[in-house]
Amino acid sequence: TAALSPFAVTRRIGHPYQNRTPPKRKKPRTSFSRVQICELEKRFHRQKYLASAERAALAKALKMTDAQVKTWFQNRRTKWRRQTAEEREAERQQANRLMLHLQQEAFQKSLAQPLPQDPLCMHNSSLYALQNLQPWAEDNKVTSVSGVASVV
Q1: Domains of the chain from N-terminus onward
Q2: What does the record give as the DNA-binding region (predicted)?
C-alpha cells in the first residue's frame, strides 16, 4: 500500500455543508413573571452586580435558576449602559445648543455697543479708520476686485 502524503487533499462529494453536524436547536426565550421582573429591577436599582452567593439567594427566592439571574443582570447592565450613554449624549447636545445661543447673544450685544476709543488710534488716522470699520454692518457692501476686498 502506498503511504498517504500529508499534502493529499480529500475531496468531499456533494454540497460543502452537507457533512456538517446540524445546528443545535435554540432554547425558547424564557419569559419571567411581572413579580420576578419587578424584584429583579428593584435589586438592580440598588446593586448593579451580584456576588455568586447573592445571585444564588435571589434565584432561589424568585424560583429561577442561577444562570437565568446572571443572564438577566448581564442584559440589564447592557441596557443601562446604552440608556445612560444616550442620556449623556442628549445632555451634551443640549449644552452645545445653549452655548451657541449664549455666544450669539453676546455677539449681538457686542454689535450694539460702541467700541471704546483706543488712545493710540485717536492720534493715527489709519488706525482710527480701521478701528471704526465694521464689515458686518448692513450698510457696508464688500466687493472683491482681483482678490483684494474693499468696502463700498
Answers
A1: 32-111 (1.10.10.60)
A2: 25-84
- DSSP sequence for 68-136: HHHHHHHHHHHHHHHHHHHHHHHHHHHHHHHHHHHHHHHHHHHHHSPPPPPHHHHT-HHHHHHHH--TT
Cell of 140: 457696508
pLDDT per residue as tens digits for the range 79-123: 999 999 999 999 999 999 999 999 888 888 877 777 666 666 666
136 vs 78: CA distance, rounded Å: 51
> How many beta carbons lie within 10 A of that of residue 2, not counting itself?
4
Contact 152, 140 (CB under 8 A): yes
1 residue type, one letter: T
- Asked whether 143 and 152 are in contact (CB, 8 A), the reply is yes
